[in-house]
Amino acid sequence: MLLTVDAGNTNIALGLYSGKGEQAELVRDWRMRTDTRMTADEMSLTVRGLLGSFADSVTGISALSTVPAVLRELRVMLGRYYPDVPKVVVEPGVRTGVPLLVDNPKEVGADRLVNTLAAHHLHNVACVVVDFGTSTNVDAISAKGEFLGGAFAPGIEISVDALASRAAALRTVELVPPRSVIGKNTVECLQAGILYGFAGQVDGLVRRIAAELSSGGTEPVEVIATGGLAPLVLNESETITEHVPDLTLHGLRLVYERNIR
Question: Catalytic annotation on 111?
């Protein structure tokens, strides 16, 4: 079985795949909190605990991290606890088949690269990927599978925490839809501003990016949402056409199959 590891700023997502190619199936997935102080030994113990009965069934590993400290410990963990298991860590030099049409390809995060590969594999048309994580990333992908760039915005949780810490009369609230867009109390006002505000922000960015991608509206554009916070905005967005929660894990599987025969 192939273990995929997506270590981001807030969470580490794990996925276990059986089979290869079009027959590949995501058997289980897990999420754990990212801790930049976690050692390789602690990481291994946590991963094996989550895998449970699947721990000894891992025959391949594909991983990435956008956090340098976590990436370092991830490499140590893979070398120390999985020395004989074929593995790929997504970094410059790893074959992905994704052309990077940006000013500085080295600046493109491994997660954005892998998402591009997965989106193009799922939809052989131009795509916009909206990744709701620590930051909200809106990335543009051409119909040829080229990464064209995108836009960053502060993530939902970061914005909520910043608002609560800087405004004395406001506080962190549960992120659920309020009774109305017009809030009748402080909690509902916050919920309306956060949920509908972020949905409007995403829709505005997506519409502008899609307009550039679609050549005046003559070509189809798929809008794919992913990331741990995507479910908060899905029902309020007018532009998202598909939710693929395991998009990055899917891309990691594709990268592994391109590099390990």
Answer: yes
Query: Ranked by mean pLDDT, which of 8-17, 91-100, 206-215 comes out on top?
Result: 8-17
When pLDDT is averaged across residues 190-209 and rounded to a whole number, the result is 93
The phi, psi pair for 132, rounded to 5°, reads: -90, 95
CATH of domain 105-116+123-249: 3.30.420.40
Which residues are bridge partners to 2 per DSSP?
A: 17, 60
Q: What is the location of CATH 3.30.420.40 in the chain?
A: 2-89, 105-116+123-249
CATH topology of domain 2-89: Nucleotidyltransferase; domain 5 (3.30.420)
* Residue of 29, 56, 111, 203 marked active site: 111
Q: Binding site: residue ranges?
A: 6-13, 109-112, 131, 134, 186
- Which tens digit of pLDDT belongs to each residue from 107-156? 999 999 999 999 999 999 999 999 999 899 999 999 999 999 999 999 88
Annotated binding-site ranges for ATP: 6-13, 134
Q: Is the pLDDT of residue 168 over 90?
A: no
Name the amino acid, one letter, at 159.
S
Q: Are 170 and 190 in contact (CB under 8 A)?
A: yes
